[in-house]
Amino acid sequence: MQQFDFVTDLYILDLTHEYVIRIGESYNMLQNFLNFEKIPKLRTLKVKHMFVTDEFLEKVSNMKLQSLMFIGCTFLISKDTVQTVQQCKQIEVTFGESYENICFNRCGRFYTHISPPAHKQMIKIQVNINKCVKLRNLAVNMGEYANVMPSDQIVGGLRYLTLGKMNCDRLLSSFRCYGTTPEYLSIDIFDLKLAVSFLKEINRNELKHLVLICVTHGHSLKTCDASNLLNLDFAALKVLEIDAGGIYNKLSSGSTSEIQMRKLETLIIRHLYLDEKLLKMITELEMLKHLEICIANRYFGPRILHRQLSNLKGPIEKLLVSSELTIYELVRSIEPLKMLKEFRIDGRSIQSSFDSLANQNYDKCQPAKVDANEQNLMESKNVVHLKLHTLHVSVDSTYEELIKLMLCQDFEAFADIKKLVIDVIAILSKDNQVSSESSPELLNNLIKNIFETFKQLDVLVFCYKSFHISEEEAHILREFFSSRCKSLKERCEWSDECNEEQTIFELYK
């Protein structure tokens, strides 16, 4: 490795990580890639999906870094320190005062499935951060094998705190974090009551972004009463994310009648059932600009949404709705939202639209441009034209279905958009199998239909999960875009949302 005196920030991602154990190859450990003597000015190290030994972890803790992030990594014991079957190796790492950001997120420990139970307890990690007097950002989301117990002094200085399920109960119930005054707080916990009790005790005056994850599973309906949370006063809160998704959960407003979050600008809710009373309170939020609602239940949720979406009083600029509402119902619901600039629909609404049309005796989805007779002209007068800038479409359909979608009369409501983003979850063949080699002609027809439908379009973006896109598809996109646009940008980047690498094509017309 040559000298890199100019490098201060380093990001390492190993995409082969999750496949290494399955195929029996030697693992790619982090120390195989790094020689810190060659990068003396390093201040930020971000590592994703790598194997990390105890020796490396101890070494990096002694460095004068400012930011250290391990995301989706696996910790294991180096060959020189392997213990006997009956022993347990405890790794204790003490971070120095230079650290401002420490993150252990979705990390695990390595053991083979054929090892005896004693072997599976070989590694425990004790993280000591009590010397980190400059620490402002702490993220701990690991299993019970890891232990992080910050002192009151360190907790008092934290501004960004993320606690995962296995660590959350232990830290919150021990009163270890009550002295924090966070701007960002993320809690992943089984017991929502414990999270609310914690929120009651801490200083919430500077809290701007709150993430609550309370996913439970079972075989009976469990109501998640959010009234105690909604009754708390959050003077500065601008972003609230609630994921209380479990299979049989219902999010209820309980006895509360008003949300005490007057400055809230972004609200993201993922749930199975949503109380209509709660949704009505959401419509009363006067500062709300960004709303995302994902309701899994197909029987009650869509009808509630259909009734309430048009009543949103806030200056909504960005809206994502994941439900069984058809495109026609969505368009009619959001038509009154005059400040809406960005809208997103997913495969559930697309499939509901196709199912609805299939069950009708007449076809609402016949494109007006096919026949320019008087009847079609009359029908076109009823088409709503939304003044959006950006439309996001998340699809898991065939290219044939996407072409049909472009021709749908209800889809003409989006005809004036300037930017179209298509998140391709997985292009399926007609037998619902992931298609490795999609027809070049179909893909070409799809792109042509997009430009015919959206005549004002300036930017077209295709986002693929990297392992879904074939070389042939990539070549078609490059060739076609190059002949039709001013410029084409192609890039690969990691998506935290889907926890995978994406291949992104951006066409500028």
Would you give an account of this structure?
The model is unreliable at 17-26, 112-121, 361-365, 367-381 and 432-437 (pLDDT under 50). Among the domains are: 1-148, no CATH class; 387-509, no CATH class. By secondary structure, it is an alpha/beta fold. It has 14 helices and 27 strands. The chain has an 18-stranded mixed β-sheet. Helix 7 runs parallel beside helix 8 (301-308) and helix 12 runs parallel beside helix 13 (440-453). The radius of gyration is 26 Å and the shape is globular.
Question: How do the helices and strands line up, and which of them pair or pack?
Answer:
Blueprint: E1 9-13, H1 17-23, E2 44-48, E3 51-53, H2 54-61, E4 67-71, E5 74-76, E6 89-94, E7 101-105, E8 108-109, E9 123-128, E10 137-141, E11 146-148, H3 152-157, E12 160-163, H4 165-173, E13 184-188, H5 192-201, E14 209-213, E15 222-225, H6 227-230, E16 239-243, E17 249-252, E18 266-271, E19 273-274, H7 276-283, E20 290-295, H8 301-308, E21 318-322, H9 327-334, E22 342-345, H10 347-358, H11 374-380, E23 390-395, H12 399-407, E24 419-424, H13 440-453, E25 459-465, H14 471-484, E26 487-495, E27 500-508
Parallel strand pairs: 1-2, 2-4, 3-5, 4-7, 5-8, 6-9, 7-10, 9-11, 10-12, 12-13, 13-14, 14-16, 15-17, 16-18, 17-19, 18-20, 20-21, 21-22, 22-23, 23-24, 24-25
Antiparallel strand pairs: 25-27, 26-27
Helix pairs in contact: 7-8, 12-13
